[in-house]
């Protein structure tokens, strides 16, 4: 007797879910913040748990500070296989986080399948290059931030 494996329909995940936008977060160490934003990615099903450790490892070898108060932590190459779907998670801070001597107010954790991470990075960079939008991202409420980053009303 042959059993046909039921075809699984893979649900396309949104790049950003509203519950992954946290504003006015409490200050913490850089590593703890990376772990928190990474855990949001894991809890939302974008990545497997080892990816979070890979995000911390990336930061030890190369800073993810991008300028303009922004850091974009993501995993090292060795944990790319732990990404199940492309997604981002966001934390903003009233006060600046010390990111190896740089001031950060926006942390966006990124998991990108294949080359999608480059598209995600360029989209975020484009928004942060506009000073007015960058300032708004740093200080707005969660709903507005979600709308800016997702492009949804």
Which terms would index this structure?
38% helix; Mannitol-specific EII, Chain A; globular
> How big is the Rg?
16 Å
Name given to the CATH architecture: 3-Layer(aba) Sandwich
Question: CATH H level: which superfamily?
Answer: Mannitol-specific EII, Chain A
Mind summarizing the main beta sheet?
5 strands, mixed
Helix tally equals 5
Distance between the termini: 52 Å
For the record, the count of structural domains works out to 1
| Beta-strand content estimate | 15-25%
Q: Quote the average pLDDT.
A: 91
The count of β-strands is 5
What name does CATH use for the topology? Mannitol-specific EII, Chain A
Structural class: alpha/beta
Question: Strand order, biggest sheet?
Answer: 1-4-5-3-2
Low-confidence stretches: 1-10
- H/E order of the elements? EHHEEEEHHH
State the name of the first-level CATH class.
Alpha Beta
**Range of helix content:** 25-40%
**Shape label:** globular
Walkthrough of the structure:
There is one protein chain. With 153 residues, the protein is an alpha/beta fold. It has a single domain (18-150), classed as Mannitol-specific EII, Chain A (3-Layer(aba) Sandwich). Helices cover 38% and strands 22% of the residues. It has five helices and five strands; from the N terminus they run βααββββααα. It has a five-stranded mixed beta sheet with strand order 1-4-5-3-2. A hairpin with a 2-residue loop joins strand 2 and strand 3 (70-71). Residues 1-10 have low confidence and may be disordered.
């Amino acid at each position: 007797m042959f059993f046909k494996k039921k075809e699984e329909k893979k649900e396309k995940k949104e790049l950003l879910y509203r519950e992954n936008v946290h504003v006015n977060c409490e200050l913490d160490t850089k590593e703890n913040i990376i772990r928190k934003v990474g855990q949001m990615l894991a809890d939302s099903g974008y990545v497997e748990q080892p990816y979070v450790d890979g995000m911390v490892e990336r930061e030890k070898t190369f800073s993810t500070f991008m300028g303009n108060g922004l850091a974009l932590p993501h995993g090292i190459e060795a944990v790319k296989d732990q990404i199940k779907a492309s997604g981002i998670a966001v934390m903003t801070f009233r006060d600046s986080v010390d990111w190896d001597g740089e001031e950060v107010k926006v942390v966006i954790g990124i998991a990108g399948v294949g080359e999608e991470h480059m598209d995600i990075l360029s989209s975020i960079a484009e928004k942060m290059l506009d000073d007015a939008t960058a300032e708004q991202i740093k200080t707005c409420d969660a709903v507005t931030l979600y709308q800016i980053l997702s492009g949804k009303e």
